[in-house]
From TrEMBL, chains A, B:
Belongs to the Nudix hydrolase family. Residues 11-144 form the Nudix hydrolase domain. The keyword tRNA-binding does not apply. This is DNA mismatch repair protein MutT. InterPro entries: Nud_hyd_Dein, Nudix_hydrolase, NUDIX_hydrolase-like_dom_sf, NUDIX_hydrolase_CS, NUDIX_hydrolase_dom. Its cofactor is Mg(2+). SUPFAM superfamilies: Nudix (SSF55811). PROSITE patterns: NUDIX, NUDIX_BOX. Pfam families: NUDIX. Keywords: Hydrolase.
Length: 162, 162
């Protein structure tokens, strides 16, 4: 039988972002100001990420948002996954993230300053505290960070063995 | 507010594969034999792809399946997307695909011959006919192929302008 169109589940809202780690395994986060109509996220931390625009490839979204929100020019390395979620109103959202490497030209401050108030590396321990106190915007950010640490550990094992 | 764990939608079944195009824009497809218990797919065509195993990165799945099913050594280029679907029993599945480039060492025949009976390039016109007659396994294959042609056209425009 053919798995036809009736078995397709359309997901109209997609987002994409980057996990950037430093040598200590800290993760680069941005703190949102919250635009008018989005005040529920004001003050919360997340990875540089945003909505995949119509016709945009999620990789290009991730690269664009890394620059706009965090002032980081990136090369996307490993795909960390696509995670499915719902907004509080029930609408499905698919979030993509890549483990990314900062390139020359990165300034590590928001380029679109009206959206982001702060950009900094957060340690694994501090991340745990921020998450537990509701200061990390999304559970998916936690899953992407955990996957990034796993991927990095595997890469280091491979390099050590090579 | 935090978009916490209650807004996460777990997808336990994931698949990943590759779209390989030739110069004419034909797509590389494999024809499945159908293993015992999977006879519903016998004789149908799909892209080289398969299940993401536990702990496996979808990129590695795509690369592995390209070799096992089609004898193609690939470099993954552009991410073509992650598409959500359901199996006929209602279980969610997330399918990932990359536009991939064949590398030296490719043999273009099944390496795991018990799963695949045939490997060949199919033109856009023939693909349309195969799809319309129910011979393409998945609607998602059609969407990935369309996206690959769009990505390739955009790359060519960029190269021509550069």
């Amino acid at each position: 039988m053919q798995f036809g169109e009736s078995l397709h589940v359309p997901v109209t809202h997609r987002a994409a972002g980057v996990v950037v780690l430093n040598g200590a395994g800290d993760i680069l986060l941005v703190r949102e100001r919250g635009l008018p109509g989005q005040m529920g996220k004001a003050g919360l931390w997340h990875i540089p990420s945003g909505t995949v625009e119509n016709g945009e490839n999620p990789q290009d979204t991730a690269t664009r948002e890394a620059w706009e929100e965090a002032g980081v020019r990136v090369r996307l390395n490993t795909f960390l996954g696509a995670l499915l979620g719902r907004f509080p109103d029930g609408v499905l959202v698919l979030r993509h993230a890549w483990l990314a490497e900062p390139l020359e030209g990165s300034v590590f401050r928001p380029v679109l300053g009206h959206e982001v108030s702060e950009v900094r590396f957060v340690s694994e321990v501090e991340f745990g505290t921020l998450y537990a106190t509701g200061k990390i915007r999304m559970y998916h950010t936690k899953l992407f960070y955990e996957e990034a640490l796993r991927v990095r550990a595997a890469m280091r094992r491979q390099e050590a063995g090579a």
